[in-house]
Please model this.
Amino acid sequence: MSEPTVIEAVDLCKHFDGGLVKAVDGLSMTVARGEMLGVTGPSGCGKSTLLHMIAALTPPTSGQLRVEGVEIGGLRDLAAYRRDHIGLVFQLHNLLPHLTACENVEVAMFGTRLSRRQRHERARRLLAAVDLGAFADRPPTRLSGGERQRVALARALANEPAILLADEPTGSLDARAVDRTMELIARLRGERPELTVVLVTHDPRVAQACDRLIHMADGRIANLGSEARI
Ligand code: ADP
Ligand code: MG
Model:
């Protein structure tokens, strides 16, 4: 039996500057629960804009975008949606430099029902799960690029999101750190088979690890022939 659809885009568009820039332009796709979808394509083809719409960081100009059956355009509490459903990892980790690794993860749990102590304990567990238990009290400035990216991954997972969105998460890492990050994502998927992952990447090894790839060009899926199951 096929898995239910978690993300469905129908003729999705995001235009900027009064339509002069068509960042996403008539994109239709579905992503199934538990799937890891890789998104590739040249710089400027709309990959980040697509992820930002799924994360409700920016509203679509037109078209439909349903996540777990909910139309993103009709959401009222966007912050709650992001906090409760979405984990986000960017190319540059976007950690707060004056906080420790642990505090950076705790921040993601503000606004939840967890007490301060529960947030702290959970953050420590999450950091241990990405093999950073010993570094929980360090600020990001005292961590390597790969370690920072693992803190960002721990932070993204803090509220057990249904969907993990990663925008070139290994783009600034060396080969060893890329392997480590991908191992962790594989382990995570083993533990949480229902987790849906959408991952933008230029790295062929990262693309290899995906269940399915879409190639974007000019704001839409380039052609069905390039939608390959690996
Ligand atoms: P990618 O992630 O594939 O490199 P983006 O989604 O970042 O591409 O951008 C797609 C296009 O939209 C680019 O031409 C970019 O310059 C443009 N764009 C992205 N965000 C904005 C914005 N906030 N205002 C105007 N143009 C934007
Ligand atoms: Mg981008």
